[in-house]
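Standup notes
- DV: blocked on the single-chain target, sequence here:
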Amino acid sequence: MSRRSSQRPPAPEPLRVPVPDSHTHLDIVATWTDGDPLPVPAVDAESVTAELDAAQGVGVDRVVQVGCDVASSRWAVDLAEADARAWAAVALHPNEAPVTADLDSALTQIDKLAQSRRVVAVGETGMDFFRTEEAGRAAQEESFRAHIEFAKNHDLALMIHDRDAHDDVLRILDDAGAPERVVMHCFSGDGAFARECSRRRYHMSFAGNVTFKNAPTLREAAAECPKDLMLVETDAPFMTPVPYRGRRNAPYLIPATLRFLAHHLERDLDELCLQVKTNTEAVFGLDSA
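- DV (later): unblocked, structure below
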C-alpha cells in the first residue's frame, strides 16, 4: 500500500440523484492515520457512522462494504446488520489465499458468511499477479474457483479483483462457468478488455483512478462500457479521485468520479447517476435484498 494523508478533502456538491458506492472498505477508512499505511485493529463505530452520514449528505445513499479475509468479512456483515445504508460482500482477497494457514477452513467460513441475509456479493475474489508471485497462484486459483461456486450456490453477485491477470481471470470464469452477475471491481483493463467483459455481460465498476492523468486506457474502457453495465465505486480509502489524489478516499467522494465520467462521456450527470443507481440495484439485488 502506498502512504497517503488522512487529511479530509472537502465535501463535493451533492448529487441530485442518489447513487450507491459499489465497493468500499469503511473498516480501513475509519482507522487510517497520517503516515500509517496499515489499519489499526479497532474500528470506532462512531467514525463509521460519520462516514455513512457524510456520504448520505452528498447523495451517496448506500455502500457495499467489502471483506478481504474472514475477520473483515464478518465485520462487513455486522455493519450491514447494524446500519441499513450498508450491504456486505464477503471473501478472501486473492493475495490472502496463498498466506492463509488453513485455506479450507477459511473458505468454509466465507461460505457460511455468504448465507447472511445482508450479503449481496461474494468478493473481492479473483487473481492478482502484481503482489502474488508464481508460487502462490495455485492457491489463488483454488480460492477463486471456490468463491465462484459460493456465488452460484447462493445466487449472489461475484465481485472480481483482477490485477495484471486479465487473461487468467477470463479463462477461469469461462472454464468454471460464471455466475449470472459478475462485477469487475476497480476496472483496470483497456478498451479491448472492456469489450471482452461486455461480450460476457460483466459489469464494470470504475473508481477514482479513471480520473488520473496517467490512466488514458481506463477512460478508453469507460467509453467502451455499455450504459447498463457501468458501476461506480471508491475502493476507499484507495483510488482517491483528482484533485485529491494522495489523500484518504471515502464514499462521500463518489460525486467527484461521477462528474468526471459525465464530462468525459459527454453524458448528463443526472442521467448517468440514474443509470448507475439502476445498474447497482440490479446487480446486487438491492431492491429485494
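- Follow-up: The longest strand covers residues 119-128.
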